[in-house]
Every structure is written in C-alpha cells, then in structure tokens.
Amino acid sequence: MNPSHAQDEHEVPAQPVAETPVDYMAHIKGMSFFDPHIHMTSRTTDDYQAMADAGIVALIEPAFWLGQPRTGLATFKDYYASLVGWERFRSSQFGIKHYCTIGLNSREANNEALAEEVMELLPLFAYKEGVVGIGEIGFDDQTTAEEKFYRAQLELAKEAHLPVQIHTPHRNKKEGTERSMAIALEHGLDPGMVIVDHNNEETVKSVLDGGFWAAFTIYPFTKMGNERMVEVVRQYGPERIMVNSAADWGISDPLAVPKTAALMVMRGISPEAIRLVTYQNAIDAFAQSGQINVADFATPMVIDQSEKFNGNTILRGGQQPRRDQQSLFIK
Amino acid sequence: MTLPDLFNETATDSEKAWLTSKQQAPIPARLAAFVAVPRFVSRRPVPHNPDWTMDRLARVLLLTSLPADDETAYTKAIETLFDTAEMQELAALYSALPHLAFPQKWLFRATEAVRSNMGPVFDAIAFGNTYPAQYFTEAAWNQLVLKCIFNDKPITRIHGLMDRANATLAHDISEFAHERWAAGRTVPAEVWQLVPRFMNESLLADVKRLAASPDERDREAARRVIEQMSSRFNVAPSDTGEATLNIRR
C-alpha cells in the first residue's frame, strides 16, 4: 500500500461471519486476468503459484512505500532496479508477465532533501522496457511537499509519454481525489492517460465524468469489498473501470481480481463486462505506454525467445518446479 | 563474422539507420539509446547464435562505439549503466564484456553475474562468452562451473571449459557428486569430462561407481574418462578398464 492500504488501529473489523465454502474457481475456469496493481516484492512464491493457477497472466507492480522510510538514494535505486530486474525474473518463473510503474510515493515525498535526489534518478528508470507508467504517485497527507513532487512527476510522465497511476489518500479521500485530478488537468495531462486508483462509491462518478480511468482496489477491511464492486459495475457499466488487488505487506489478497470476477459471474454480470474490468481495460490504459505486448501473455505458456536456450528448458516461463503443499514430505 | 556484420545481415533498414545515427550521437544520447533499444530494434534471435537476440546485439554495438580515450569517464558511463540496468540490459552488458576497453576493470562485475539468480544474467556471462576463460581467477572460474552444475545448466556451453580444467575443480566436482548421491539425487554425466587429467584414488572410486551405475549416461561417462586416461598413458582402453577398474560392461 502506498503509502498504506492497511487498516489504522481503530479500523480493526469485527470477526467475520462464517460462510459456506464456495468453489469459486469453477466459475472462472479458462479465464485470464490482469492485475494492474500488486506489490509482489512483499509477496511469497506461494502467492505467485496461486495467482498463476487462478488465471492471472500479467500484472503491474507500482513503486511504493516499503513499510518504513528509506534513508538514502541508493536504496531507492536498488528498489527501482529490483522492479525491472529480480522481481520481473521471479514473476516470469511462474509464467506471469511482470510490468511496473516507477515513481516517488507520496509518503516519502515528505523527506524533501531525499525526494529531490530521487527525482533526478527517476528518468533513468522511466524509459526502461516494461515500465508502463509513472506511479503510484499522488497524495497521502496532502502536504505542500507531496504536491510539489506530485506535480514534478506529472511533468515527467508528460515528457516520457507515460500513463500516470494515482494513489488517492485514505483520509479526506474525496477531496484528495478531486485535487489530484484538478492538478493533473492543470499540467495539461489527457485524462485518458491517467488512472485514478483506490476509488469507492463516493469518488467513482466524478472520476468517470472527468474522462479518467477509475481503478478499484479490492482490499479487505480498508478499501473496497468485492460485493460492493459487483454493484459498482452493475450501476456504472464496465467502461474505463478496472479492478486490482493492491496486495502488499498488509492483510490483503493477491487473488482479489479472480475472486471478484467469480463473484461477478455468480451475480449475473455479463462475461464481456467482466473481461473488460478484470483484464482488457487495464491493458488498454497502460498499453498507451507502448510497453505492453499482449502476445507476451495472451497465449498460454508463451516462451520468451530471449530466455530460451538450446537443450535446456530451465529458464522457460512457468517452469518453476511445483511442490505439493499438502504433502508432509519435503523432497 | 564481426558483430556489425552479424547485425547488418539481419536488421531492417530502419533498425540499421537508427543504430548508425545513435552510434555517432553525443555520449549521453548513446547511453540513453542503450536503454531505449527495444523501442527501435525488435527482440528476435540472431541467426546461428542461440544466446543472442537482435536487441542485445544492438546494445553491445552501442557500447563498443563509446570512446575509450578517457578511462575515468568511460568507466563511469559503464558503471552507471550497470547500476540502473533492467534484466535484458544486464544481459547485454555482460555479453559485451569481452568487447569493452579496460577489461580488468570488469572482473568484479563479471563475478557478480555469476552470483546472480536471474537466469538470463547468469547465462550471459556463462555461455558463449570469452571473458571468464580469459580473465577469471581459478577460484572465480571454479565457482562459475560449479554453479552451472548446481543449477542443472549445460557446462559444455562454457567457453574454454576444457582449457581451464584444474585439480581443485575436479576435487570440488567429486565432493558435489557425493552430496548429491547422499541425497538420492544425480549429477549430469557431462561433468566427469573435467576430471581425467587429475585422476587420483578418490576420483577413481567415483569413476568405478559411475561404471556400475544403472544409468547408461553414467556408464558412458565412465567409459569416456577411461578412454581419456588411456590416451594419456598410452594404454589400451580395455586393459585399463578391465584390469584397473574391474568394470562390468
């Protein structure tokens, strides 16, 4: 969560009511999903396997706050490098195409001296292959420092012809969302190049009316629930709406997108609408970067020629050996 | 065939024009072009060269166009590219090492690629690359070969493999095989070609074990070891095999 999708202490929920288990996977068999916001750096290999099994074929990992503030430029550099390096490779081992957005998150924008240095670093990464936007940027506490670096990064996005992925704040969300959009327009950005994230019932109408993309984060306790999401799609239709998990180091669900799709199937949303909000719209929005080649993940088990290797299949996508999670024996 | 010839043979006209203009551009623009290559040169295999793709080749050609008259500036430029590289850029940088100026400068970097867990990065230094055979210390070389074996990658694609075989490596291979065997796992048969020149009692025991293996590939490996030993000592293979090793065929 950038800066924090997790709950504040006073938001700890009541114990959930026990529910009858549903085989939701049966409802989404054969479907493909694109999760345009998930922080895999904070997730395990079990998550990657479960995501691949549930039909997630590609994802976007926005640069975010790692849970505690960084104290030097080098740790920012290494983090950005890991998003286009190690994490990209790790994902490929599970057959999932990994993209990222690069940016200085709002919380750390408040360390102004360091933020200035980070701004000089960003162009080195913004033009990398597979970087599909500037993100996630925007407001957390809505301070003047946050606004300064939000504006600077909008300029970078314009310069690099990249979409912008906007994080909207937890507190004063409605006001923060309006302010984020107004500033983006003030800098001359085309709303069609701006994805406003973490929407809810209160913000969605204004975002869509402004011509922006409206992303919804299905995140337990603090953001959207997927039952509410079904009703949003029923009311507004699928156009320019996309669903993500924003799964990170907080209590979150890397299967939020496929689970929401299953619930939509069960509650009678049309297959085409489901495809748009859980796959196609995210691709359309971020492919404006010129950095998404659908052929890389659209056909099952695509083999990246550059990673293929005569007489050796170890490096092919999706060939990470499976372990039997139910087995007592570890071999 | 030279690298430029290899590129020109397969590149489209627009790819060639783009690369030529960037090779003559001011230095910062060349470095930016290194990053931007995939936007202008498509990722497709270089003919007859399974390790390389056209975008990687274009990147290497941009690096070889950098002037080497100022060592400090040259080094800084290359180091910056390494520090901010994504996965394919890293692979291109390591592929370029034999073609860069001041080759000794990149020794630490090259061993970092051996430490990498990113498959394409490791492969770029390990396979079809002349840099390790030429510049690696024995310890670094042995680590490269052993890591290859450990990860079930084909050591036969390491340039200079036989030339740099050494007694320590032969010993390490034996130790590694013992660990694998203890765990009920196997060792690729091709690794045993690195031991004949350094034969001793301990290795001989390994060869006997291979010769008795239920796996045909192990038995074949044992036969080859014996053949190589025989040619060294000018003894008929059958004599060595039957008399010294008591191999059941």
UniProtKB/TrEMBL annotation, chain A:
InterPro entries to which the protein is assigned, alphabetical: Metal_Hydrolase, TatD-like, UCP005295
Region of interest (Disordered), ranges: 312-331
Recorded superkingdom: Bacteria
Keywords tagged on the record: Hydrolase
GO molecular function, one term: hydrolase activity, acting on ester bonds
Organism ancestry: Bacteria, Pseudomonadati, Bacteroidota, Cytophagia, Cytophagales
Record's protein name: TatD family hydrolase
From TrEMBL, chain B:
Listed InterPro entries: EboA_dom
Name under which the protein is recorded: EboA domain-containing protein
